[in-house]
């Protein structure tokens, strides 16, 4: 396996400079350094594009980027569950199981855990699928998911690419995506790919993160004017094909989606929304991070 095709030491130095400038409130200088990161590493392993967008000083990317997501979760894999579940109170996998039960979906023939991470959704749905499959971009995460014993088959790959390229034709009657949509801006390509892989009447369940004004709590999309740690006005909400103020990169460098936008995107993809429940995704900087749990069904 070949090593990185960029100067890692140079990237580390410039990225450290960018973080320091941002922390000090020198946002133009920070943006200059983040752009220098992209010159060193166009694949963007450090997420410079997201940080520029969060500052309101760069275009909003379509996704978080494969290199950034894989690097982030490969680094976090060993401590992922301790930080996310025990320290930040992340409970989306359990909420998925409860929502499916409440709506009368008790058992599935073929289930796909999209962005399976360390296997939390697989464990939450243990025994409810004849065949449970998982895919994640992070090899280190997949290794931990394998050890969980919750999956019949596991794959390493990016969510959208996997849905498009997976060689098996047999559809799924459940696709779950916990903590996946916050790494996509425009959702239509992903939702269309989900639709294509679902059996008629199949179920798609996914969590989103939303703007603070769209739900309870303190995670955000655009920053409030004068908010510490970002320039006046913060990131801008962007209009997607569904129209309106749709999504933005929040100060946590994840995509936050408006509920109306997500509903319209689901419906446009042929997914009938059965539930859009406001949830607390986790704690973020000591405050609840608001989101929604969507349960949808492919049209017959």
From TrEMBL:
TPR repeats lie at residues 11-44. InterPro entries: SAM-dependent_MTases_sf, TPR-like_helical_dom_sf, TPR_rpt. GO terms for molecular function: methyltransferase activity. Keywords: Methyltransferase, TPR repeat, Transferase. It comes from the Bacteria. One of its GO terms (biological process) is methylation. Residues 215-226 have a biased composition (Gly residues). Residues 214-242 are annotated as: Disordered. This is Methyltransferase domain-containing protein. It comes from Jiella endophytica.
